[in-house]
């Protein structure tokens, strides 16, 4: 009897640690935080990247708007003049000066100054304010259609003339997950960008 009783107690002692270990394993929550983070990380970083991308794009928009105001003031005061409509030398000089205004954040290469691919400028003179076009010129009626630049010119008027300066910059959206939410223009090759638009309408001063 004593031997059997000792065997039963001995068997009971051997089983208890195994059952206790199983209970501890099923109740353990040591990796819960890591699993929860793995599940929530994708939407979390998506929101963070969207905020950063939008913030940087809006800073770029302010930079372009400031450059338009600066260059419009130079045209209005006669500091910047054109001797002939669409003069190539004036176009190059104007685009170079505009790029210098945005250079601390947006870089314009010599190729970009000569042949626009991202920065498009329209500087024209009009007889009356009613003749000034409104809206963004698009190649089609599609919502995200590319710019129509065939009418763009570099032809400011002289003293007391009415002028319009418009600048468009195709801001590249870097993060693919954010691109569908930020892009508002698509080129013929399918590239999607955020179109920055800045406009100034003014009448030149009566300079000499």
Biggest sheet layout: 5 strands, mixed
Query: What is the 3D shape?
Result: elongated
The averaged pLDDT comes out at 85
Query: Major sheet: order of its strands?
Result: 2-1-3-5-4
Level of helix content?
Answer: 40-55%
Strand content: 15-25%
Low-confidence stretches: none
- Measure the end-to-end span: 126 Å
How many distinct folded domains?
Answer: 1
Taking Cα atoms only, what radius of gyration do you get, to the nearest Å? 33 Å
Class from secondary-structure proportions: alpha+beta
Report the order of strands and helices: HHHHEEEHEE
Number of strands: 5
Individual helix count:
5
Describe this structure in words.
With 208 residues, the protein is an alpha+beta fold. It has one domain. It is 46% helix and 17% strand. The protein contains five helices and five strands; from the N terminus they run ααααβββαββ. The protein has helices at residues 2-27, 32-76, 88-102, 110-114, 179-182; strands spanning 119-126, 154-155, 162-172, 185-186, 192-203. It has a five-stranded mixed sheet with strand order 2-1-3-5-4. β4 (185-186) and β5 form a beta hairpin. It is elongated, with a radius of gyration of 33 Å.
Main features:
208 residues, alpha+beta, 17% strand
Question: Secondary-structure blueprint of this entry?
Answer:
Elements: H1 2-27, H2 32-76, H3 88-102, H4 110-114, E1 119-126, E2 154-155, E3 162-172, H5 179-182, E4 185-186, E5 192-203
């Amino acid at each position: 009897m004593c031997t059997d009783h000792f065997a039963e107690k001995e068997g009971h002692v051997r089983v208890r640690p195994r059952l206790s270990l199983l209970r501890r394993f099923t109740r353990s929550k040591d990796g819960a935080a890591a699993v929860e983070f793995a599940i929530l990380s994708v939407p979390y970083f998506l929101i963070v990247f969207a905020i950063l991308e939008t913030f940087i794009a809006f800073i770029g928009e302010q930079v372009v708007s400031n450059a338009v105001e600066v260059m419009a003031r130079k045209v209005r005061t006669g500091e910047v003049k054109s001797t002939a409509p669409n003069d190539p030398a004036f176009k190059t000089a104007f685009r170079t000066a505009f790029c210098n205004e945005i250079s601390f954040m947006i870089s314009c290469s010599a190729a970009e100054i000569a042949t626009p691919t991202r920065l498009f400028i329209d500087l024209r003179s009009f007889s009356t304010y009613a003749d000034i076009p409104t809206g963004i010129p698009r190649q089609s009626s599609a919502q995200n259609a590319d710019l129509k630049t065939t009418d763009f010119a570099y032809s400011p008027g002289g003293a007391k003339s009415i002028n319009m300066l418009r600048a468009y910059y195709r801001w590249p959206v870097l993060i693919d997950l954010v691109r569908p939410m930020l892009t508002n223009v698509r080129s013929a090759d399918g590239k999607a960008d955020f179109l920055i638009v800045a406009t100034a309408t003014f009448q030149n001063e009566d300079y000499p």
